[in-house]
Amino acid sequence: MFARLNVFTKITLLFVMLLILVLFLYTYSNRESVRVIEHEIQNNTMNHLSTFADSVESNIYQLSLYGISIGQDSSIQEYQRPDYKDIPYERVKVGSAILEKINLYNAASKWHSTITLYFPRLQKVISTDYYAYIPYRKDEFSKPLSKSWAYTHEQFEWYTTDPTTAMDTPGKSRLITKISFPVHHLIAMLDQNKLNNKGDPFMFHPDLGLISNSSANDTLNAIQSKLKATELSGKGGFTATLDHTEYYVSYIQSASLGWYYVDYVPMQQILGPITNSRNLFYASIAVLIAMSVVVLYVLYRSVQLPLLQLVKGTNRLSTGDFSVRLHYTSRNEFSLLFARFNIMAQRIQELIENVYEEQLRRREATLKQLQSQINPHFLYNCLFYIKNMARMKNEKAVVAMALNLGEYYRYITRSENDQATIKEELTMVKNYLEIQALRLERMHFTMDVPDDMLHKTLPRLTLQPIVENAIIHGIEPRTEDGHITITGHHTDELSTITVEDSGRGMTENQMQELTNNLHKPLDGSMGCGTWNVHQRLSFLYGERAGLSYEHGSRGGVKVSITWYNNINE
């Protein structure tokens, strides 16, 4: 199938296939690059968030250890001695020592926290919060304490008891330790993480809201809505599109606080160079396609169309149409080639026409030579007829035969003009038919040609060969009476004379063979008369002029002679 296409189509298809292959390979490579970079972005964001979460968890774990270790301190045990009830000074002295140790704990910690010690049995409170008086209230510890960090009043709180089994009944414990730190510690770490990693981290709780860094933007509200609508696990990430911008959101749940550490990055900001490169490539491809279309169009106009015209011209020339000429307005190699082709076609046409005309002239000369010679058989039959009629004293038949025979031979031997009017042709044919009617008493003829056709011209001796064939091949072989009808009709452009006989007729194959012989070169097996008539008409009036055969309405053959009026008028 591909081999049947022309060169231009092959080039176009190969170019399109190459372009599709390049687009496919680049698109696949671009998608793989984007996928790898997105994966790296997700891993990098999660790693930064994990580092941040580990740092926060480390500080919280350190605070939790402080709460547990404080309860084991000997000063705490000494502070609860029963004999200090009568010695308040000693208890105050031990309380000061306890407070000093707690401050040492705070000084060693990265976060400044508030540590408060409740002594249910003594109903006393020791706290590092110097600016607040914290009384001991029995109802504050009537309910079980939370075993995890709780968020309240912009700070996180955590309780532990001594013994630790007293978390459900804190009022019966020896010591309740409360450690709290403000939210601004987390905000400071969020700010530091944002400064180092160029993200926008924050903390989120489905029920309590979010804790953001100090320079957070309005995107957090939309991220918060997405987080609330998403079923969150312990660790993970997802993509979200906000205001036509795609973000990757990663989160890690804090084991201590129960909140989620969240960070997000705009994917387009990182993938921008790749996207710009992709857009530039597609723009280059679009420009390349436009230029290719222009090149293909110019190639089609400058090469393909001239080649198609040249191929069509050679095909028409090979079929015998030597009148073909190629027209090309551009001035390039094809214009020279077309000019040479037109010269070649013109010379071939002139040679063919000269040869063809010479053949017609030779056939005309042969026909005139035959016409100038007296047909012995036809002439002897006419003379014997005159002789017999003279013996029978039939003077009228002798006169009629002699006059018709003389007029007939005078017309066919006259050669000063190749053209004759229809009236002259019909007069000669009438003489010929009357001669045949005298010889064959069973033959009759009818002529019906309009008067306005009689002045039209056609080649001499056009009708006589047709009428002669109708008598010899159609009427004479039969024993019944025969009839020949000659009719004519015309239009503004076309004239037609029809010769129809009531003879034995022809089969369809015989008629088709006779029609085919009209268009073949003359050979010894073909009749000269009808072939010569058809060739002369075609040569003088064009390819559509000539003879045509069909079955007659009386069982014989109907021959139509057609030619154009505007040639010789």
List strands and helices in order, with pairings.
Blueprint: H1 7-70, H2 74-79, H3 88-108, E1 114-119, E2 124-127, E3 150-152, E4 155-162, E5 175-182, H4 184-197, E6 202-205, E7 209-212, H5 219-229, E8 235-242, E9 245-253, E10 260-266, H6 267-318, H7 333-372, H8 376-391, H9 395-412, E11 419-421, H10 422-439, E12 443-448, E13 457-459, H11 463-475, E14 482-490, E15 494-501, H12 508-517, H13 528-541, E16 546-551, E17 557-564
Q: What are the main properties of this structure?
A:
alpha+beta, 52% helix, 5-stranded antiparallel sheet, 569 residues
Give structural notes.
By secondary structure, the chain is α+β, with helices and mostly antiparallel strands. The chain contains 13 helices and 17 strands. The protein has helices at residues 7-70, 74-79, 88-108, 184-197, 219-229, 267-318, 333-372, 376-391, 395-412, 422-439, 463-475, 508-517, 528-541, and strands at 114-119, 124-127, 150-152, 155-162, 175-182, 202-205, 209-212, 235-242, 245-253, 260-266, 419-421, 443-448, 457-459, 482-490, 494-501, 546-551, 557-564. A five-stranded antiparallel β-sheet has the order 2-1-5-4-3. It has a five-stranded antiparallel β-sheet with strand order 7-6-10-9-8, sandwiched between helices. The protein has a five-stranded mixed β-sheet with strand order 12-14-15-17-16. A hairpin with a 2-residue loop joins strand 3 (150-152) and strand 4 (155-162). Helix 9 packs across helix 10 (422-439). Residues 370-374 have low confidence and may be disordered.
